[in-house]
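Q: What changes when 2'-deoxyadenosine-5'-diphosphate is included in the input?
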Amino acid sequence: MERTLILVKPDGVQRGLMGEIVARFERRGLKLLGMKFIQMSQELANQHYAVHKERPFFNDLVTYITSGPVLAMVWEGKDAIAAARSTIGATKPAEATPGSIRGDFGMEIGRNLVHGSDSPENGVKEANLFFKPEELVTWTRATESWIRE
Ligand code: DAT
Ligand code: MG
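A: The predicted holo structure follows.
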């Protein structure tokens, strides 16, 4: 089972797209383990984007992600990383496939609405950065056998 940390970034929250975005992961068939609405601290943003520390856009990235509240979620499933990333769409929204979140709602790389983990290892690491173990719920989904063989 893979886990992915999904963030609705401040532009998605401000534009009233939280429900729309959650619905897309939900109907795709991923299982929600945890969700919280938070204002990210500078420290959490630095940790979350640590891999991009040397990139020229790092400061803009931290400013953007801390510019307002975000909706943080952990979703689980077999192939959760690939499924979530295709639902999110390409990093540059202008190049994202229509039907993806970025392809339907985005125009700018610096306003690309959603974060999704890029590997199973980072999914676990990022989930643990945002959530304590007891904040993630273990539950049985009644529709499981209609979504998974
Ligand atoms: P993704 O969010 O699709 O996983 P990423 O991990 O490569 O993309 O980069 C993290 C974020 O950094 C991305 O959502 C937007 C920003 N970013 C990436 N490349 C950029 C660039 N060349 N110029 C400006 N911002 C960039
Ligand atoms: Mg990434």
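Observations recorded in class: Residues 18-28 form the longest helix (11 residues).
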